[in-house]
Design goal:
The protein is an all-alpha fold and 429 residues long. The protein contains 21 helices and 2 strands.
Length: 429
């Protein structure tokens, strides 16, 4: 393993080691990527050119505009120091993590994969020695599995599918088989989003395999055709939801899964919104102040009460006291959370990331030298998190690595890539 890859692996390996500072939790990975960023920046103008060129430069610029919008919002709203220090730090550290990873990996897939492997092993270390309240806050499925084992094992299954060892074991099925197994295991443990993402990545990889067999068929995948493929993907996702509904509703996934399904399907919200009803309120908060946000860690009991009223009107029972805690404006989403807190540029940043990710997925289908199953798993997970997961903590450097994966595909699309024969077999299947 090259010296740079050892550094990258170690940066991922310490991903769960954190210290508490004024701006919240700072991870050892954040520190190492920041040091690497500064050291590489001091080496000369090459690093500056790499960070200001092409889509990397666009992302950095939009990130700065997001930060500026957050600063203006917090000054306008008079946000307390304890909140704006965390809000500004979250954006700054994320941008530094991204720049550090761009420079360290040089957007090479092997290096990006090395970072992901390090993060996966860091989750194993945390589970063994430093478990947190999420991992052991409930039963095995909703604790250890969902917040520890599932993300690590499913990602490693996708990574293993890119190696020659997977092909030696299972031939042409090696790229997909391990991810299919992990998808089924996730369904068994009622982690429906990870189940869906894994199976969708496998379907994307199979589609890519079909296109690789026919240059003429691949040529027919135009941007318009890709839009129709995305629509077909949404239909496919509905089919996966139906599979989950049947399995959970019949108790095949256990009593806990059936109880959860019956609770979330009791009202007139679909399964997606019933699991993340915060989106209904965050959209209203954005509409109330679309340009200037509500401030870092914005608190407003009005929107919390609004969420309660919406759920009650849709026939969904709310357990516990909704007014306990800090009463932050509900926003279970990278996109909505950034827009609610910072304002319009927070939304523009994450919408741009979705557009770049979709461009990368399209180019993945057009390039024979891109490992489609692994790449699509990473990129579809990125899109999912932008819309349906909160942003913060380790998501800073995980998202940075996922964005680097998209940029790897797009950069490869503009360059004449001539992989050695062994590497071509490894990454094209």
């Amino acid at each position: 393993m090259a010296y740079s890859q050892i550094i990258i692996f170690f940066a991922g390996l310490v991903g769960t080691t954190r210290i508490t500072v004024v701006g919240g939790d700072l991870f050892a990975t954040d520190i190492l990527l920041s040091i690497s960023f500064l050291l590489l920046l001091l080496t000369g103008n090459t690093a500056i050119r790499r960070l200001s060129h092409g889509l990397v430069g666009v992302i950095v610029l939009l990130g700065f505009l997001w930060l500026l919008n957050q600063i203006i919002t917090d000054v306008y709203r008079g946000t307390a120091f304890v909140d704006w220090s965390r809000g500004w730090a979250k954006i700054v550290v994320f941008l530094v993590d991204f720049c550090g990873l761009v420079l360290l990996t040089d957007l090479q897939l092997e290096r990006i994969i090395t970072f992901f492997v390090g993060i996966c092993f860091s989750l194993f270390i945390e589970l063994l020695f430093f478990p947190n309240e999420f991992e052991f806050g409930g039963d095995f499925a909703q604790g250890v599995w969902k917040f520890g084992l599932a993300p690590a094992l499913t990602t490693l299954a996708a990574i293993f599918g890119t190696t020659r060892y997977a092909q030696l074991l299972l031939g042409i099925y090696g790229e997909f088989a391990f991810l299919v197994v992990m998808g089924v295991v996730n369904l068994f443990y009622d982690y429906r989003s990870m189940f869906g993402l894994a199976i969708m990545a496998v379907a994307f990889g199979l589609l890519k395999r079909v296109l690789d067999r026919s240059i003429h068929l691949r040529a027919k995948v135009t941007p318009i055709a890709f839009v129709f493929l995305l629509m077909g993907g949404l239909v496919f996702a509905q089919g996966l939801i139906m599979i989950y509904s049947i399995a959970a509703g019949n108790g095949w996934l256990g009593e806990a899964a059936r109880d959860k399904y019956e609770m979330q399907s009791a009202g007139n919200l679909n399964l997606l919104l019933s699991g993340r009803p915060e989106s209904l309120v965050s959209v209203k908060a954005i509409a109330d102040s679309p340009i200037v946000g509500h401030g870092s860690w914005a608190r407003d009991a009005t929107y919390v009460a609004m969420l309660f009223d919406i759920l009650e009107s849709r026939g969904i029972e709310v357990h516990g006291d909704i007014f306990e805690g800090e009463l932050n404006i509900p926003a279970h989403s990278h996109l909505f959370g950034a827009w609610v807190e910072a304002g319009v540029m927070g939304g523009v940043f994450w919408v741009s990331i979705v557009v770049i990710t979709l461009m990368a997925l399209y180019r993945t289908l057009k390039r024979p030298d891109v490992p489609a199953t692994f790449v699509s798993f990473v990129l579809v997970l990125l899109i999912w998190d932008v819309f349906f997961s909160p942003f913060g903590g380790s998501q800073r450097f995980v998202k940075a690595a996922q964005i680097c994966t998209a940029l790897y595909v797009l950069r490869a699309s503009k360059e004449v890539v001539r992989l050695p024969e062994t590497r071509r077999k490894r990454f094209s299947g």
